[in-house]
Design a protein that fits this description.
Helices cover 29% and strands 21% of the residues. The chain is an alpha/beta fold and 235 residues long.
Length: 235
């Protein structure tokens, strides 16, 4: 039986550290265009929608092939509203219009390095499992076991002091959320957190992962994108 999948791309208009971030030009295209295009290229989705409160973002999203069947209410567009609430609102709104889906994938609008193969891997592994979620992760670039905090006295204090003398190769590898996509099997529920036993990690190489929250992040992401695509063009 074929599953019916939807991609939901949250993109509010009120980004502060990088104004108009979601539609700012990134290597020749609005940033959000990359997320829409990778969803289209994957061939996984019956519908790709952008959830936004902003008319200009809606116009740009439609130009690149997404649908914007509604504008998100302002109470779900502030600095404190999480992705989960945005996705739930989108699914509920569409359900009230008679649309139901088996799998939903939230794709961040700030994922220009995402490749279709990882979306496909996430869907296939989730579909063939009893897990509830599958999402993008990447390995930490250094052993977390050697991390420390700076105390109120401006001194260092290790979180795991017993690991200070351990060899790097003897320390267990740790992973972090890559912040690119989150698959959800909508017919399953769990009380565990996303980073728990009901989730399948889809491991991305670190050179395909970059948060874009600050101007410095933006510059780094553009440099990474240019290098990756220069190498692709030469191959």
């Amino acid at each position: 039986m074929q599953q019916v999948n939807i991609a939901i791309i949250p993109a509010r208009g009120g980004s502060k550290r990088i104004p108009r971030k979601n539609i700012k030009d990134f290597c020749g295209k609005p940033l959000i265009a990359y997320s829409i295009e990778v969803a289209l290229q994957s061939g996984l989705f019956e519908k790709i929608i952008v959830s936004t409160d902003d008319e200009e973002i809606a116009t740009v999203a439609k130009q690149y092939g997404a649908e914007v069947p509604f504008l998100r209410p302002h109470e779900l567009s502030d600095d404190f509203t999480g992705t989960g609430a945005v996705v739930e609102h989108a699914l509920q709104t569409l359900h009230e219009r008679g649309e139901t889906y088996d799998f939903a994938c939230a794709i961040y609008a700030t994922a220009p390095l995402l490749e279709p193969r990882y979306l496909i891997e996430g869907f296939e592994k989730l579909r063939e499992s009893n897990a509830v979620y599958a999402f993008s992760v990447t390995s930490m670039p250094f052993p977390i076991w050697r991390t420390f905090k700076i105390t109120e006295a401006k001194r260092c204090e290790m979180f795991w002091k017993d690991k200070f003398s351990a060899r790097s190769q003897d320390l267990e590898e740790a992973y972090q959320d890559a912040g690119q996509f989150y698959w959800h099997a909508l017919h399953k529920t769990t009380h565990d957190v996303m980073f728990g036993s009901e989730s399948i990690p889809i491991v991305l190489p670190r050179h395909l992962v970059q948060d874009i929250d600050t101007p410095e992040d933006w510059t780094r992401a553009e440099l990474m994108y240019k290098v990756l695509h220069e190498n692709t063009d030469k191959s």
